[in-house]
């Protein structure tokens, strides 16, 4: 990667602008941030507003960009497209956003872009797959935000229950970023102690209460959207975390949406799975040893997504 690391954001709505804010607050996660959106006034306004942050944070070149600017970018972050309305599921957005992505990804590729795509638009697993297909890039250079946000919600929920710091909770939500996601309970640990052992030793909660907490995590987006119309801070920070893992060549393990080629018995689909992220993109997606029930839930999630993906790809060809 070049010395000056350049990021282009496509989509400057609630999610995109929260990501941009997180990015200008954090030190050294790229030196350039160019922003593209159909709403050019919004971009111009956000650029002016974000520049006001720099004197109190870190230097960065923030500007209104266009597709040719993607040419020498290290990462293109996509948050553009339709968002859920109250009562809608993420999967209700498939048709609209697939069409938007076809044109958008083509324009990025036409610029000569050779970097890494990082996708957050919903349904994120389907649209990450679409970005991979439309771009013709190797799967390692197309990453979706996957279940990074869900896992952050899950870790915080467990941390609040046990009264510990969420940074010491290692726990993943895997599968679809959506209704068929599941908690990898059997692999969850707190400070190195298996979650189930911790619970037994501290009798903090019973198993039923824990399951309720998973439902709360799974349905949290619906709750926030009902209350304020969008969720954006959590994903903004999650995207910046993934971006940092790429630009700083961290080899960090994050449950991003990754292309599965046999892992967990799943093929040819993107889903949230723990993956090692560095400046090449996804270095490796590894197989955690899940319980039989968890593995079944993973495969069920994949089946459901495969069906939606096939329908969406067929519709696009009509
Ligand atoms: N992956 C995740 O964990 C999360 C994903 N999301 C998803 O992120 C997406 C964005 O959500 P919001 O920012 O709340 O929506 P928003 O409606 O506030 O912003 C979307 C932006 O995309 C722009 N846009 C639409 N078509 C475009 C095109 N062809 N080219 C350039 N810009 C275009 C719009 O002008 C708008 O500014 C949604 O699909 C939402 O469901 C939201 C939260 C979490
Ligand atoms: C909207 C969405 O995908 C989320 O907050 O999880």
TrEMBL record:
Beta-D-fructose 1,6-bisphosphate binds at residues 155, 170. Gene3D superfamilies: Lactate dehydrogenase/glycoside hydrolase, family 4, C-terminal, NAD(P)-binding Rossmann-like Domain. GO terms for biological process: glycolytic process; lactate metabolic process. Substrate binds at residues 84, 90, 122-125, 150-153, 231. Pathway: Fermentation; pyruvate fermentation to lactate; (S)-lactate from pyruvate: step 1/1. Residues 147-315 form the Lactate/malate dehydrogenase C-terminal domain. Keywords: Allosteric enzyme, Cytoplasm, NAD, Oxidoreductase, Phosphoprotein. One of its GO terms (molecular function) is L-lactate dehydrogenase (NAD+) activity. It is found in: Cytoplasm. It catalyses: (S)-lactate + NAD(+) = pyruvate + NADH + H(+). PANTHER family: L-2-HYDROXYCARBOXYLATE DEHYDROGENASE (NAD(P)(+)), L-LACTATE DEHYDROGENASE. This is L-lactate dehydrogenase. It comes from Aerococcus suis.
């Amino acid at each position: 990667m070049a010395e000056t690391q350049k990021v282009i954001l496509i989509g400057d709505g609630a999610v995109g602008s929260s990501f941009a804010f997180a990015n200008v607050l954090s030190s050294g996660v790229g030196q350039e941030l160019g922003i593209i959106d159909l709403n050019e006034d919004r971009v111009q306004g956000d650029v002016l507003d974000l520049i006001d942050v720099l004197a109190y944070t870190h230097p960065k070149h923030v500007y209104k960009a266009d597709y040719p600017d993607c040419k020498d970018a290290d990462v293109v972050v996509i948050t553009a497209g339709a968002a859920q309305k109250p009562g809608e599921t993420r999967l209700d957005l498939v048709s609209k956003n697939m069409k938007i992505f076809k044109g958008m990804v083509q324009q990025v590729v036409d610029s000569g872009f050779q970097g890494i795509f990082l996708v957050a638009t919903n349904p994120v697993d389907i649209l990450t797959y679409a970005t991979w297909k439309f771009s013709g890039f190797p799967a390692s250079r197309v990453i979706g935000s996957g279940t990074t946000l869900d896992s952050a919600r899950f870790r915080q929920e467990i941390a609040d229950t046990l009264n510990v710091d969420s940074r010491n909770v290692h726990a993943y939500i895997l599968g679809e970023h959506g209704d068929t996601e599941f908690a990898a309970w059997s692999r969850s640990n707190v400070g190195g102690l298996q979650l189930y052992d911790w619970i037994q030793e501290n009798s903090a909660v019973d198993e039923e209460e824990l399951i309720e907490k998973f439902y709360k995590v799974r349905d949290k987006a619906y709750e926030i959207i009902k209350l304020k119309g969008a969720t954006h801070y959590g994903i903004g920070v999650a995207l910046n975390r993934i971006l940092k893992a790429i630009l700083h060549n961290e080899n960090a393990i994050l449950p991003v949406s990754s292309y599965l080629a046999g892992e967990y018995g799943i093929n040819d689909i993107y889903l949230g799975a723990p993956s090692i992220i560095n400046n090449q993109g996804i270095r490796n997606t590894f197989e955690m040893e899940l319980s039989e029930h968890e593995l079944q839930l993973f495969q069920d999630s994949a089946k459901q997504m495969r069906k939606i993906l096939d329908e969406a790809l067929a519709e696009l060809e009509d």
